[in-house]
Design brief:
The complex is a heterodimer of chains A (82) and B (174). With 82 residues, chain A is an alpha+beta fold. Helices cover 26% and strands 27% of the residues of chain A. Chain A is built from 3 helices and 5 strands. Chain A has helices at 9-15, 30-37, 44-49, and strands at residues 2-6, 19-23, 53-56, 59-61, 72-76. The longest helix of chain A is centred in the middle third of the chain and has 8 residues, at 30-37. Chain A is globular, with a radius of gyration of 12 Å. Chain B starts with 11 loop residues before the first strand and ends with a helix. In chain B, helix 2 runs antiparallel to helix 3. Chain B is built from 4 helices and 8 strands, in the order E-H-E-E-H-E-E-E-H-E-E-H. The chains are: A alpha+beta (82), B alpha+beta (174). The interface between A and B is medium-sized, with 21 and 34 residues.
Chain lengths: 82, 174
C-alpha cells in the first residue's frame, strides 16, 4: 500500500520536503512506517534520536495501529507550541 | 436561572490558528455571558529572543485546539471557552497563544483556563524556532554583539513528546 508521510520542523528541514510517499506491505502498522522512514539516509539519525509520535489521518495513533491505503501519516517530533 | 445551570444554548466556543496578531480583548468578548460571574484569560508571550517562528500541522492543530476547547468547556461547565494560537513569525513581546474561560464562578474559570493552555501546549502539533537576532546585510549580531552565522542564529526549541499522553487524554473524553 502507498501512504503519505507529512514531515514538520527539523524533520522537514532535514528531508528538504514536507511530505513523502511511502510503500508499505499489507498489514503494516504505525511502528512499521516509522521504521521505514528511519531507513532513509537523511532522516535516520533524527528518527533514532527523537521521541517521535505518529498521527494517522490527524489523530494521534499508537504504534500498533494498522495502516490503510491512502492514509495520511504525520511524524510528530516533540511539541513546542505556546 | 438556578445556580449551576448553564445557558440552554450551550457554552460559547471558539478556536483558531492565525498568522495575524492576537487580541486578548477580542477573545474575552467572545466568551462573555450574562451567566458568567468570572472570566479568566491567559496570554503566552515571546521573551528573550528577537522573535519566534511557529510551524504547525495546520489541519490537525486547528482540529485539536477545537476539540480541547469543547472538552474543557464541558468538563468545567464553562459558559464560554476560546483559544487562538499564532503561526509564522512572532516578534519579541507579542503573544503567541491566548485563551479565555468564563464560568459562573472563578474556580471553574481559573481551572478551565489553566487546562486550556496546558493541553494546547501538550497536544497541538505546533513547533517553534528561536531566532536570536536578525541577520542584516553585514551578518547581524548576537545578544552580546558577536557576529552570527546563518546556521548559528536559530534553533528548534526542545519540546516535549506529544502528551503528557494525548492517547490517554483522548480516552478521557469518551
Amino acid at each position: 500500500m502507498v501512504v503519505t508521510i507529512r514531515l514538520f520542523a527539523m524533520l522537514r528541514e532535514r528531508a528538504g520536503q514536507g511530505s513523502l510517499r511511502l510503500e508499505l506491505g499489507e498489514g503494516a502498522t504505525v511502528h512499521d512506517a516509522i521504521a521505514a522512514v528511519g531507513q532513509r539516509a537523511d532522516l535516520r539519525q533524527l528518527v533514532a534520536d527523537l521521541p517521535l509520535v505518529m498521527a494517522v489521518n490527524r489523530a494521534y495513533a499508537a504504534a500498533e495501529t494498522p495502516l490503510h491505503e491512502g492514509d495520511e501519516l504525520a511524524l510528530i517530533p516533540p511539541l513546542s507550541g505556546g | 436561572m438556578p445556580e449551576g445551570i448553564r445557558a440552554p444554548s450551550g457554552p460559547k466556543l471558539h478556536a483558531r490558528l492565525t498568522a495575524d496578531p492576537l487580541s486578548l480583548d477580542a477573545l474575552a468578548a467572545l466568551v462573555k455571558s450574562p451567566h458568567a460571574g468570572a472570566l479568566v484569560t491567559f496570554q503566552g508571550t515571546t521573551r528573550s529572543v528577537a522573535r519566534l517562528e511557529y510551524e504547525s500541522y495546520t489541519e490537525m492543530a486547528a482540529e485539536r485546539i477545537a476539540t480541547i476547547v469543547a472538552e474543557v468547556a464541558d468538563r468545567y461547565r464553562l459558559e464560554g471557552a476560546a483559544a487562538e494560537h499564532r503561526v509564522g513569525s512572532v516578534p519579541l513581546g507579542e503573544s503567541s497563544v491566548i485563551v479565555a474561560a468564563s464560568a459562573a464562578h472563578r474556580g471553574e474559570a481559573f481551572a478551565g483556563a489553566r487546562e486550556l493552555i496546558d493541553r494546547i501546549k501538550a497536544e497541538a502539533p505546533i513547533w517553534k524556532r528561536e531566532i536570536r537576532a536578525e541577520l542584516g546585510a553585514t551578518g547581524g549580531q548576537g545578544i552580546r554583539g558577536e557576529p552570527l552565522s546563518p546556521e548559528g542564529q536559530s534553533h528548534w526549541v526542545a519540546g516535549e513528546p506529544p502528551g503528557a499522553n494525548p492517547l490517554a487524554a483522548a480516552e478521557l473524553s469518551d
